[in-house]
Amino acid sequence: MRFCVFLSLLFLNINLEVFANGIGNRYFLEKQRSLLEILHHVQEPLLNDQWRSLGEQLVTDKEQYVFYNKHMTEFYKAFNLGKLLHRNAYYNPLFADHYQQTLGLYHFFYNTRDWYTLWQNICWARVHINPGIFVQALTQVLFKREDYQALIMPKIYELWPESYHDDITVSKARKFNYANWIRYENTGDIEEIHPQKMEPLNLEGDLRSSLEWFQAMADVSILRMKQPKKRKQLYYLLEDIGWQSYWYNLNIGIAFTEENSIELQEWWYFQLSQLLARYKLERYGQKLTYKTLAPEEDIKRQNHRFEEESPKTSRIIFKRLEKLEERVADAITFRSFQLNNGSLINLDVDDNWLIGLGEIFPYDWTQLTIEQDIQPELLLDIRTTLRSENFYYYAERVLQAYRWYRQVFQPSDQKIFIPSDFRIDDMQISPLITYDQQVDVDLSNILHAKHFYLAGQFVWPFTLQQQQFRFQHKDFTYNLQISSNKTQSTIFRTFLTTSERGRIQREPFYQLDSFLTVIYPGLNRISRESNDFRGLIGDHISFTELHQFVKLAEREEYDFPLNISTPNCGFPRRLMLPRGGRGNPLKMRLLIVATVYDFKARQGNELYCDFSKGISRWDELPLAYPFDRFLDDDIQAVEISGDHVFWKDVQIMHEDF
Ligand SMILES: *[C@@H]1O[C@H](CO)[C@@H](O)[C@H](O)[C@H]1NC(C)=O
Ligand SMILES: *[C@@H]1O[C@H](CO)[C@@H](O)[C@H](O)[C@H]1NC(C)=O
Ligand SMILES: *[C@@H]1O[C@H](CO)[C@@H](O)[C@H](O)[C@H]1NC(C)=O
After folding, report:
1. Which ligand is nearest the CA of 342, by number?
2. Is the CB of 563 under 6 A from ligand 1?
3. Which parts of the sequence belong to the Hemocyanin middle domain (predicted)?
4. Which domain holds residue 75?
5. Is the CB of 358 under 6 A from ligand 1?
6. Residues 391 and 426 in one domain
């Protein structure tokens, strides 16, 4: 059997395990519906009487928990003393106190023995606890408890549209009066649209063209609010809801995870380097400086609830960065490091450098809590961090320090991974075309809650969608032609970079694709579709549709597929290419690097923000290989020159449709 086939079978099995038989039964559906109803308008008081009364008391009987730990004791004590964060106060898990409260509630969820206890606690928290704490703790539990992992959370930007849309949109949606709108028929810039018109049409699983979709949406009026204009410059990337929520989910998934922290740390730094490289490619495409980033001057962007970043925050971060850089410089100078527990280790001995790495470089935001209360700021809110341009400047400094440390201490035996009797002869690629795509984004959670209760019953009579422009590209394919004199299993990594041939170190390399295949003696042709690149996800159904599908399935008119939504920790596929040029194409290069397969591939479940099974990897090379270290600029580094690599000039066009 070919290894790739074998591996994909292996991967398939693991996915099936998560989605046993793939269809939600009625117990699942009941839980799923309850969950959606409780999360509906989560920022407002709960209107559902049944759950309000169920939520009067937190379950405090210790028998109902697998563990009853000190986080729970402290949380409950604080609750009784009235010391928990007020419902309407601004919540930020980076504040030490808010974080402790989240941790307490998380344990009250996570440690429950059964669904009934968990559900009562969920209802209680929905009624009594700050909605930020509630959503955070609940998301964590659904990511981490294997028995509830199949339950679907609406996407964060649908739960909290306020944080992702401009003030005008939010206030329009908030003031929207359905009864008046019907009476005066299509006034203003909100119009009713036919279901077939909802964009994008091609969701994963082709859900929006199915017969069941029309059935599910039959009783729902779809209203659309127009977004006035396209976003300028980099904002179409920075303000993209998929871009932002990817980072949110990934960090929420990592928080409170204890498994193999060294591996998780490496993975996190790899994701960070990918984001930074992707951001820099966008700057390059826009002809903005990208080689080294500078902190942004205090630019005030209008129409958003958050400030960019206060001088006080900048000071705190600069201090922390300097301390980090100092520790790395000292470690390199003295070849030793003092651990937090006081003992001094020699970094040249055994795997000590990994212990130092683990202690010097934080990756879990729960390690970065701050004491002071600060006003809402983009940078410090984990939902919106990626919207802050300074983030990329800070990220670059942290990554520099991280690479230096690895460069100095990581043992280097990577040359043995270079394949022999092997040559990449050619590469062909279909046109790379980007465009702006109009899509609808669900704003229903901003609408007044009264629209959703009829005589005390929860109903979903209409949905409000905002039409937005977002970034998209056409599918593409590339082909490789390879000669070999022997049969060998090989890993390929494909990077996108600028067309600057100068110093490799300062150019961003963004990994687009990686795969494993077997190369046979003679000429080999390999074809890769952009839709098959790993770790990327397409579009999912909205909060409204999710709810309607659950209702349809409860009426036994639909087999509810457990994979109906997209995995939360996947990166949006449509964002993998930077915006092309109009008229003049954007010139870039691809780099393909082949390495010998060491039969150490592993499959984790990180796409679903679940790190309990470790991280997927092809081999034991660093995840960021060969850019995990600073490659030599003067002589062509052996990792990226020779027959096992291939450079290809490419062009990206931007088209209007
Ligand atoms: C769910 O899985 C099925 C079977 O593998 C697949 O055909 C379908 O497209 C998937 N749906 C989504 C939304 O990804
Ligand atoms: C400190 O931690 C290191 C690494 O975990 C361990 O080997 C060492 O024994 C600890 N030293 C003390 C004094 O606890
Ligand atoms: C295969 O072997 C032949 C004969 O030794 C040599 O000319 C050719 O370059 C080799 N091909 C590769 C891809 O190494």
Report:
1. 2
2. yes
3. 156-289
4. 3-151
5. no
6. no
